Amino acid sequence: MRFTSSFLPVWIVMFPMVMTAVIYYVEQHSEKMRNALAVGTSLVTFLSVAALYPYIMAGNIIEYKMFQLLPSLDISFRVDILSFSLALLSSFIWMMVAIYSLDYMCKEHGCNRYYPVLIITLASCMGIFMAGDLFTLFVFFELMSLISYVLVVHEETVEALRAGYKYLIMTIIGGLALFFGIIITFELAGTVTLSGATLIKEPSTLAFFAFISFLIGFGMKAGMFPLHVWLPDAHPVAPSPASALLSGIMLKTGAYGLLRVIFHVFGFEFMQREGWTVILAVVAVITILLGSAVAITQDDLKRRLAYSSIGQMGYILLGMSILTERALIGNIFHIFSHAFMKSTLFLCAGAIILKTGKRSIKELGGIGKQMPFTMFAFTLAALAMIGIPPFNGFLSKWTLSLGAMDAGVPFYVLVLLLSSLLNGLYYLPIIISAFFGGEPGHEHDHVKVNEAGYKMLIPIAILAVSCLLFGLLPTNLPFDLSRVAAEFLLRGGQ
Amino acid sequence: MSFAAAQEINATTETITSLLPVVAVLFPLAGSVLVLLAGLYAEKFRSALAVLTALVTFGLVLAIYPLVQHGTVIYHFADVMEYGLFFRADFLSFLFAALFAGSWLLATIYATVYMKKEASQTRFYVFLLSTLGHCLGVVLSGDLFSLFLFFELMTFSSYVLVIHRQTEQAIRAGTIMIYMGVAGGLSLLMGIFMLYWGVGTLELAPLLEEIMAAGINPLVVIPLFIVGFGIKMGMAPLHIWLPRAYEEAPSPVNAISSAAMLKAGAYGMIRILTMVFTPATPGAAVAGVEIVKYIGFAIIWVGIITMLLGATLAILQNNAKRILGCSSISQMGYILMGIGVATFLGYEKGAMGFAGSLYHIINHSVFKAALFMMVGAIYLTTLNVDITKVRGMFKKVPLVAVTFLIAYAGIGGIPGLNGYVSKTILHHAIVDAHKYGHAQSLLFAEKLFVLASAMTLVYFAKLFEGLFLGRTRPEDDEKSFKVSWVIKSLLILYSGIILAIGVFPEFVLNRLVIPAAAGFSFDPKNVAYVAHVNVWAWQDLKEPLIVFILAAVLYLILDHARAFTWKPPEWLSVEFMFYLPLTRFFFQTCCRFGASFDTAINQTYMKSGKVASAMCTYITSFDSSINDAYEKSGSVARKIVNQTERFDSSINDAYEKSGSVARNFVNQTERFDDALNDAYEKSGRTAKRLVNKTAELDGALDDAYEQSGYRSRSLWDRMRGRPSDWNIKNLNFDSLLMALMLGLFLFILIYYTKFA
Asked: Is B594 within 8 Å of A293 when comparing Cβ atoms?
């Protein structure tokens, strides 16, 4: 393992941050420039992350120390394979969403607020994934959480404000819990730098409190039971591209944080020895079943998707609690899969809402004839969600289940399969009524095709096809990255 | 081909790597895309293209035949879906693939006529062809992973075919079908997980030793597979999707569904029970063989129950398509029973059951597809196949009626037609199971087998009587029944096949069924015995006679008791007794419980929020009381100031008084000493000045006191602030408080742990 120092991570974080200010200045003068800059910034960020590929795949870890914010608390960056994977995924989805927003947001108010916020959340998200110590991670985590409040309440309806208030309160509680955890870690270890060596080596009451605080702090973001209550309110009220990011990427920062805590703060052997993973497993199983079961009873399309996100985050948490190699691969790969699937679904839902104004699933009968392309993409992603081969959702469930079998707990496999059945119960009716519901069709349907603009369809198409390709392709980049990342973590992060 | 030759081929030749199975699977999928494009741009060629695709696929499948005669054809795509896709064709796979592709070709030709007036034809052909690809994938895949992949795809693509009409009932039937399909798929997946985890391979090969060595209990794993494949197969009690789906689907779909999709389930069953769960060394008495044997015994009984249940249901139906659907359940029961016997008797004597069910699979594909096509031909004109309404078709469509009678005789097991051969072999099998398996109860099973055969004759008699005899409806009289020449020639072709197999049973047995058995672990002696079985012996020929007499008696009794028109109460159905409560229970526990649980959590949060806000209100009042205290203290200060002033003035008074005393004193001195003493005068003036200065000081002090009073009052006023800044709705205050409390808690905790 070689360490290199590179300015690139700083650039990746700082560039969108600086661009936020630029966009803020430009948008006073030209809307077109603003849009171009927003897409351009996300593109450049994505390319900059992609430029790290050769370094990272050669087995390097990039470390860069910026400055000391407080005595012995640095702002530092560290990019290993896990950071790189998630940063790559996030910046890619962000780019897709930015393109999608161009059409979607053009009828919305407050675009001048939306785009700078979109870009600065990208910056803070990159900061989270590339943070070199817990303190930096905390700073960016809070930045992202608080700023995304603006995305949640964008519509400024009563509902949105209520949901936003709930989100804000929960985020603050989570942030404080996280801070608490970090302070305890600092107290016990004297440093909060993430490195090969684990920080806390001795089990103690205080260490347990630290673990619980981290669990609350990151679990809050990840939509973990019983801290998930903000999620089904906040995700549906946000504008659809923002929901796609909230569900697709920002939930994963919580999962990422927990991975770092498990592997860098405590070490997975420590976790297993102390049996703390059991807490995570219990919570994960409840999260899976609760999210899936409640989703069935929802009638609002986006709300159903939000509950489905809770269930899917449960898979990721379950993978973390099992901690065998295959479970971990499945866990990281499911972060990829879910990002692709859920952002596709939310973007499709957004296209439907934009074109028809329908949010209730009961009204969606026959929508497949009106918007065949969108609903086809929706079907691909939904089948992936259910876990039908050869989609990526199947691959992650397959790997995760084999990991569970490795750990000798077929019960988890049963939970995963039951959840698949439940997923089927809430996704299939949407598809069935969309394509086959309503009036029986005739050879040449009289329903006029009324699709969203191509700027919305292209991102949807790319993401939906990714769901298929990343399950089917023999050289599967996300899967390879997951495998290398899992091996890396199990080696102790060296 | 003799068995010994087949065994030799299997043992000596190596595997052949060829893309042919892959091409056979992918070609119809590619064809479906072409049909889609044709549907969009050149509608005229759509159906022709579909037929062409099916034809070429059939040709491709037949091209595998020379290869499987020399060995197993394999092709491996490493790393696709991380696990890798594995294609493999042995003789059994080839047999199924040829059966599927052939039935599909005929059904597609039939569909070009049948579907002419239907809506969404493009969608129909696209999914018809892709389902063919998936079905071929099921039988041409070399491991359970690939098999599962195609099995799931088949569930979804066939769904679109079943709900083609998009009526409410069709959607309902399709919904039941797809959920059962998904549930079955998950059961299959669970079995696959357990197998893969234990053995590390999913290859379709004898694995029993490894399975037992890995500590997997076959009693857990095999039922998972049986449920998964059994749902597709229509096995009781998992059959409930089948009659509904058959009633609603278009006739070509019924034909391929009976001919192929049900058989895909049977194929899986055969692979699992008679291949994967057998020992690698044929006939070896390893641990686990006994357990698998018991499972085989159970399957024999499940098969018997399925055939009886299917037949009973068929007797009670009035819709011709539904009767045929229930008949399919019943016939799948025969096949299941054969597989059960093969599993039960295993290496030594199992070949008879295996051959019987394989033979019956071929036969059932032929006559059931033909029967559905006949009913469909009538449906095209009448748009109804309820046998209480549509009657007297013999006069209208005599050719259909004649071919129907041939197929009837075929399925009924009349000697000289195809069903007789397979039923006779299956009868041999169940007798063998009783004889060699030492299970007395199977003697009873044999009787039930005969009864089920009789019932087959009865419900087909009911169907024939209803549909072809009797008086036509007035509205049917006016219609002209012109059956297309395409359908006619198809029906004649099918009748020809039924007759040909019936007359030359050895051809199918020795050229198709026996070679397929070669890859399985059956005793060569037993297989040779099966290959030379003589179905024309008297003891076999007398069986149909018994069946026939039994059927006649049964028919008369049932007719007399008006059982044909009896509508069984709803609570008697499996659906009512088992599935409805199950789904209700599932929804109750999962959804309602989940939703209320979720709401409860939400409410807990809300309540805690309320408590927090109540606490904050209390703090506000506390705060204002502090404020009051400050205000009060301000007024106290003011009072003090006032009092000080009063004290001042009294001092002033005192000074003033002392001044006047001094003046008096001076006056008195003046009066006393007129003689003008300088010193006295000076001292008097000095005293006066002193008094003046004291008075000035007094005034200044007074001012100072007053000013300090004002200043302190304005300070308090400023510190009190405007009330809006401290509004409790302000979030920063909330978080500040929380931070404060958490921080306090934190430090207490740290120092407690550190110093305790």
From this structure: yes
Q: CB–CB of A289 and B591 under 8 A?
A: no
Q: Which residues of chain B have pLDDT under 50?
A: 1, 9, 12, 720-731, 756
Q: Which of A204, A405, A424 sits opposite B182 (nearest CB)?
A: A424
A259-275 burial, b at 16+ Cβ within 10 Å, e below that, comes to: bbbbbbbbbbebbbeee
Number of structural domains (chain B) is 3
Does A439 fall in a domain?
yes
Mean pLDDT by runs of 10 across the 494 residues of chain A is: 76 92 87 90 94 88 79 82 94 94 83 89 94 90 90 87 87 90 88 83 89 93 88 91 93 94 89 89 92 89 93 93 92 95 95 89 86 93 91 92 89 92 91 79 60 90 93 86 91 74
Question: Which domain does A444 fall in, by range?
Answer: 320-494
Instruction: Work out how many domains chain A is built from and give that number.
Output: 1
Q: Do B601 and A226 touch (CB under 8 A)?
A: yes
Q: Domain check: are B34 and B152 in the same one? A: no
User: Are B333 and B468 part of one and the same domain?
Assistant: yes
Round to whole Å and give the CA distance between A169 and A272. 33
**What are the tens digits of pLDDT across the range B438-488?**
888 888 999 999 999 999 999 999 999 888 888 888 877 778 788 889 999
Do B584 and B611 reside in the same domain of the chain? Answer: yes
Burial of A307 (0-12, 13-18, 19+ CB in 10 A): buried
Is the predicted ipTM greater than 0.85, yes or no?
yes
Q: How far is B95 from chain A (nearest CA, A)?
A: 26
Contact partners, residue A314, CB within 8 Å, separation at least 6? A224, A225, A284, A285, A286, A287, A288, A289, A290, A291, A419
- Asked whether the beta carbons of residue A402 and residue B197 sit closer than 8 angstroms, the reply is yes
Enter the tokens of residue B184.
């079955």
pLDDT confidence of residue B1: 47
| A455 domain residue, yes or no | yes
Same domain, B124 and B156: no
With tokens 């009060």, the residue in question is B632
Q: Note whether residue A217 is domain-resident.
A: no
Q: Is residue B5 part of a domain?
A: no
Q: Does residue B68 fall inside a structural domain? A: yes
Q: Tell me if B735 is assigned to some domain.
A: no
Contact list, A425 vs chain B (CB under 8 Å): 179
- Domain co-membership, B61 together with B198: no
**Residue B17: inside a domain:** yes
Contact assignment for A440 to B179 by CB distance below 8 Å: no
Q: Which domain holds residue B126?
A: 11-142
Alpha carbons within 13 angstroms on the beta-carbon side of residue B567 total 4
- Interface test with chain A among B157, B187, B201, B591, by most A beta carbons within 10 Å: B591
Chain B residues touching residue A399 (CB < 8 angstroms):
82
Distance from CA of A353 to the nearest CA of B (A): 25
Same domain (yes/no): B460, B585: no
Residue to test with chain A: of B86, B193, B585, most A Cβ within 10 A? B193
Query: Taking a C-beta distance cutoff of 8 angstroms, is the pair A214, A200 a contact?
Result: no
Other beta carbons within 10 Å of B421: 29
The answer to pTM > 0.90 is no
Contacts of B80 in chain A (CB under 8 A): 390, 472-474
**In whole angstroms, what is the distance from residue B638 CA to residue B340 CA?**
106
User: Is A119 domain-assigned?
Assistant: no
Task: Quick: pLDDT tens for A250-286.
Answer: 999 999 999 999 999 988 888 888 889 999 999 999 9
B328 and B384, same domain (yes or no): yes
- The average confidence (pLDDT) of chain A is 89
Whether B404 and B274 share a structural domain: yes
Task: Choose the closest CB to A296 out of B166, B193, B591.
Answer: B591
Rounded to a whole number of angstroms, the distance from the CA of A63 to the nearest CA of chain B is 32
Rounded to whole angstroms, the Cα distance separating B240 from B243 reads 7
Task: Closest CB to B197: pick one of A405, A437, A472.
Answer: A405
The tens digit of pLDDT for each residue in B185-236 reads 999 999 999 899 888 888 888 888 888 888 888 899 999 999 999 999 988 8
How many contacts (CB atoms, under 8 Å) link A and B? 137
- Chain A residues in contact with B172 (beta carbon < 8 A): none
Inter-chain CB proximity B594 and A294 less than 8 Å: yes
* Count of alpha carbons within 13 angstroms of residue A132, beta-carbon side: 21
Considering only CB atoms, B601 lies closest to which of A183, A229, A440, namely: A229
At residue B12, the pLDDT reads 47
